[in-house]
Amino acid sequence: MANVNVVVPEGLLPVTVSPATTASSPMILYPPPRGGGAPAAASIKKKCNSPIEHAGGWTHVLVESMKASSPTHLKAVAALSTAVPAVEYEIDDNSAWMIQHPSALSKFEQLMIATRGKQIVMFLDYDGTLSPIVDDPDSAFISETMRAAVKEVAKCFPTAVVSGRCRSKVYDFVKLTELYYAGSHGMDIKVPEGTKYNKKKKAVLFQPASEFLPIMNEVHKTLSEKTRTIPGAKVENNTFCVSVHFRCVDEKRWGLLVEQVRAVLKEHPELRVTQGRKVLEIRPSIKWDKGKALEFLLETLGFADCQSVVPVYIGDDRTDEDAFQVLRDRGQGIGILVSEFPKETKASYSLRNPAEVMDFLVRLVEWNRLSGTN
Ligand SMILES: [Mg+2]
Q1: Is residue 188 annotated as a catalytic residue, yes or no?
Q2: Which of 60, 73, 87, 369 is buried deepest, with most CB atoms within 10 A?
Q3: Cα–ligand 1 centroid distance for 163 (angstroms)
Q4: What percentage of the chain has pLDDT greater than the value 90?
Q5: Where is the signal peptide (predicted)?
Q6: SS3 assignment for the chain
């Protein structure tokens, strides 16, 4: 096994947990929601900032984080903020956030003017960006209209889908051969030969975590068996990432689920767990993420040192923050977070949901047609 490292992207919240119970598996928490989920969220933040052992340890912290980021809790906050004048601060919070992260639709013309004469390269997350978040991850289908919109975008600009799903699965959903695909959070990248923008004209397959494949298969098998008795739990093999979905698991059983994940990680300190939208994701602790995938694809397509390239990255998940950070570090590109609610993010702009993503893509194609740049 090669020397592996733990990557904690800037701005995320590393948690110090009891060394007696956790070996060396770190985890990265989803940010607490602003406002309403406040009691639980504030509690987590306080605990995480203090390297002390707290009651319940690892499992307790992760379960509280899962609760704090639960859409159920977030929806309750939203409902309160529209129904009860006493919580107007929620609306103020949202307004402040929208000023910091304005809608990419409302700023569309300004954005396009800034890209004039430059090469746009599109990066699109899949779940929650091109498809709705649904209870069954196997049913997260892309709509025909969204597929058509992405197809049109790909005629205008190099376009990649960067997903936590395994590459073959995300391709089976999208079914567009003209795109580039980076699965398993960027750990499985394929650039087919002979595409319009592949200047090296050579097929590229890049799998920086390939040595972890047997371990990931073992972890998938073990966790599938261990969680069989937890109703609603679904363990998905995403090649270089094992995803444990808890969207359909009763909240009372989240602790049990996390205990099972923890038990597996104790056996594999070379892995780490991160939390996404109703999913825990176990991945190799290598210095590779969606941000690295973005850089790799830019380089492969011949845009690495190009000053006139504008990478546009659209995503909804905590794992997309690595890509948003890369755009900030490069000082170029447009990061767009897809979210119905204010969230801590490195993205500069926002869209509320996949329907708005589609609107943005359609307008992008129309703008490109009218400007006659391609
Ligand atoms: Mg997503």
Answers
A1: no
A2: 73
A3: 7
A4: 64
A5: none
A6: CCCCCCCCCCCCEECCCCHHHHCCCCEEECCCCCHHHHHHHHHHHHHHHCCCCCCCHHHHHHHHHHHHCCHHHHHHHHHHHHHCHHHHHHHHHHHHHHHHCCECCCCHHHHHHHCCCCEEEEEECCECCCECCCCCHHHCCCCHHHHHHHHHHHHHCCEEEECCCCHHHHHHHHCCCCCEEEEHHHCEEEECCCCCCCCCCCCEEECCCHHHHHHHHHHHHHHHHHCCCCCCCEEEECCCCEEEECCCCCHHHHHHHHHHHHHHHHHCCCEEEEEECCEEEEEECCCCCHHHHHHHHHHHCCCCCCCCEEEEEEECCHHHHHHHHHHHHHCCCEEEEECCCCCCCCCCEEECCHHHHHHHHHHHHHHHHHHCCC
Q: Is the pTM of this model over 0.70?
A: yes
Cα(78) to ligand 1 centroid in Å equals 21
Ligand 1 centre and the CA of 181: distance in Å? 14
pLDDT value at residue 198: 63
**Distance from Cα 131 to the centre of ligand 1, integer Å:** 9
CATH superfamily of 102-208+288-371: HAD superfamily/HAD-like (3.40.50.1000)
Q: 17-75+210-284 is classed in which CATH architecture?
A: 2-Layer Sandwich (3.30)
The residues spanned by each domain of the chain are: 17-75+210-284, 102-208+288-371
Over residues 150-207, the pLDDT tens digits come to: 999 999 999 999 999 999 999 999 999 999 999 999 999 998 776 667 666 678 889 9
